């Protein structure tokens, strides 16, 4: 003000008025230029009042859901309602903001929470039998009584030797044993039939001489209640020496999965 007073001293009234008006115009122009806000996206709405300052197609978000009014109008959602379908989830996170039956997908397994039996588990989404265990890990997805299984060995079976005969194959002498094997269990599986023998048998100790044991196995599948004829071949040049030869059968039943 002191500087202004010094300038105006000695100046007539008309000149003073002119100088004052000129000064006001200069100052106003200066401050207007300094205070004018930028319009980054050039959409005609300055950044301070533009809800999307970097998007030239949007500038207003009436319902505050993070989606511009123009986009909401083009997609059919309500720009004045942040939850257009009324399912309790904001339009911006709702997988289908126009379908109240579809909401969000918390675990990212592509099944919305509203249709996901396990919304926090990305490995499960369905529980067909309603037993609380997801179908993917439920070994009995349609039976609510079971969800896992245990391994048990089939024990209800019988067998008997039918015959044995001498055979010659590939310049080798051997014996072919025939057994009748019956699976009396309610489950089927692969039974392993083994013939154990030895090249030299100690009749005094009723055991094979060390290092002379031989064996061979055959695997046969038998269904529930099924009987089959199983043949096992065993070759040894000592078989002609009947006094030093003995054999025994061993049937190994299969292990099967059962409801736990």
Provide a compact summary of the structure:
By secondary structure, the protein is an alpha+beta fold. It contains three helices and ten strands; from the N terminus they run αααββββββββββ.
Which key features would you list for this structure?
alpha+beta; three-stranded antiparallel sheet; Immunoglobulin-like; 260 residues; single chain; 14% helix
SSE-based structural type: alpha+beta
Q: Let me know the average pLDDT.
A: 86
Record the strand order, biggest sheet. Answer: 2-3-8
Helix content: 10-25%
Spans of at least 5 consecutive residues with low confidence? none
CATH class of the domain at 157-259: Mainly Beta
Number of helices: 3
Task: Based on the coordinates given, report the CATH architecture of the domain at 157-259.
Answer: Sandwich
Largest sheet: 3 strands, antiparallel
* % residues in beta strands: 25-35%
- What's the count of strands? 10
Question: What is this structure's SSE topology?
Answer:
Elements: H1 2-8, H2 13-35, H3 69-75, E1 149-153, E2 157-169, E3 172-183, E4 189-198, E5 201-202, E6 207-208, E7 213-222, E8 227-235, E9 247-252, E10 255-259
What can you see in these coordinates?
The protein is an alpha+beta fold. Among the domains are: 2-35; 107-147, no CATH class; 157-259, Immunoglobulin-like (Sandwich). Helix content is 14%, strand content 28%. It has helices at residues 2-8, 13-35, 69-75, and strands at residues 149-153, 157-169, 172-183, 189-198, 201-202, 207-208, 213-222, 227-235, 247-252, 255-259. The strands form four sheets. It has a three-stranded antiparallel beta sheet with strand order 2-3-8, with no helix packed on it. The protein has a three-stranded antiparallel beta sheet with strand order 7-4-9, with no helix packed on it. A hairpin with a 2-residue loop joins strand 2 (157-169) and strand 3. The relative contact order is 0.09. The mean pLDDT is 86.
